[in-house]
Predict the 3D structure of the following.
Amino acid sequence: MFGAEAGAYTGINKRRIGRFEAADGGTLFLDELGNLSATGQAKLLRVLQTGEFERLGSSETRRCKVRVISATNTNLELAIKKGEFREDLLYRLNVFELKVPPLEERKEDILPLIHHFFHGKAQLDDSVLHALRCYSWPGNVRELENACQRAQILNEGGKLQLKDFGLPIDEAVIDSYKPVIAEPSREVIEMVLKQNQGVVAQAARQLGFSRQALYRRLEKYKIELNS
């Protein structure tokens, strides 16, 4: 993050500019902040508080002015209680906080994300989407992206299959899928019957019902079949 002078460690034969120095006057994004070591946390806290740092192998203090945006999957409050993350560093970073819920809590985003990762060309049955929504996605969007990349490689064309994603999901989840069928109005039933010349079996199939289910609705709406 702070650069190094030539000869500061084995293998470095020229000066390297650190991320903070390179971002001076701009914005620096720090990802996976929760994985930063204790030493790294202390150095980061100093540069955030004072704007000062030294390159590795140098005693010259340098200054920079950088806007920092950070991200992490780590529960930092829990990490603080465990002594793994500095509380003062969290307060220094947490000026504005945006909490993105895990993918498991926003299942409605799964299909749009799949289409995004497939560049709008994803084809999958509702039963497969149901299985993907039932999965917990512990790796969140990154796991979904990797699963989509795997599916692009394994899919042999046509609609995507659950096996293409390579996830630990039981195929029985697909079998448990029951599509939600909207209740048709009297007018819709009469229209479908007319389209099928009054043939109940064909009309029921078009509506997604069994013949018995359609007969019950005919009785409910007092719809008479033409003989």
Notes: The chain is about 40% helix and 10% strand. The domain at 3-93 is CATH 3.40.50.300 (Rossmann fold). The two ends are 84 Å apart (CA to CA).
